[in-house]
Amino acid sequence: MALAEFARVSTKIYAAVLDDEQLLPALQAVAEYVGAAGAGCLLIDKRVNRVKAVNSWGCFTGSMAEYRSHYSTIDPFRMARAEAPCGHWLRATECLPDSALRRDEWYNDFLLDGGVRELLGAKLFDSSSHTMFFSVHQAIGDGQSIPRNPARLDLLIEPLCSAARLHAGLLEVGYRSAIARWGLDHLAAALIFTESDGQVAQTNDAAERALRLGDGLTIQNGQLCARRSFETAKLARLIADAASASAPSAGCMLVARDAGHLPYVVQVAPIGAEVATSGRPMAMVLITGLDENCASEHELTQLYGLSPAESRLAVALARGKKLTNIASEIGVQITTLRTQLSAILRKFDVERQSDIVRVISNIRARAPSPDLGPGEEPDPARLGDRSRQE
Fold it and tell me: Is-above-0.70 flag for pTM?
């Protein structure tokens, strides 16, 4: 029963990646699962330094429009979460001393007036282009701490972070919303949708071109395969895990290409039955080149085997920070960072710190395709049609 409930909530989280209409049901499912009076998420477009989307379900009654226009610029909780590592939970009332909270405009005029006394939140994803935050809410008058079930919230941090990373990645390649209603051929990135056994159900034009090249990924007997057998086996496991009805999960891997080409970054995510028009769970495979991909700390961990601390250091170095500043910011000894730096050099198979920056810098944001004109809509996608079998 416990596994089934976790799977149900995880599926709703991943469904919201692909369909904006599934976002509020996902927030409701998370809040009820962990024992909170509400939940919310906040997406920041760092390229223009503004709130791209803010959504809330539950006890909060404040205006999202007012948050975007005013309170987002003075929100101390947003600033505190931005400085914390991804997946690290913070309480709003612990980010400011009591004396400051009593005078804080955001806390008093927005949060309290909206019916919320406490937020427990975390940064889920952070790249050069987007940051996503998540929080669960405690209502005014609720004397119990949030969440009621901390263990369940800990279980959800991985699907929450994975879903946030995938959602931001899809935004960067020009994805809009709802696979069941929007066409996919306007995307520059390659997208493939498969059954749990790897049988290809649908591809977009970019994926068709990549598959015709046979450079890294192919279709054999209707199934998506890599050129090397061990990569095919790992890809099959990721697809099966993503399309699992009992415990869906997301993952990523590198797939080698012909000599002279950087590997593909292959990200695999679940598509719940609510979104897939086939009526059964499926897997979405997003394929980009390393020179097009925007890596997060989590992706560096999966792609290069870095530890979380090593990934955090590598991203900080790529953003131009110096070891001494990083040591001061995260409160560790410089000798510890030098040990981590040596490990990163070994795992990246490079010799100099500048090479680390070069590798990370090559994992660039995906280039979005042009927006559709006013009133233009792409043709509806038809998930479940086996039109790409060989």
Answer: no
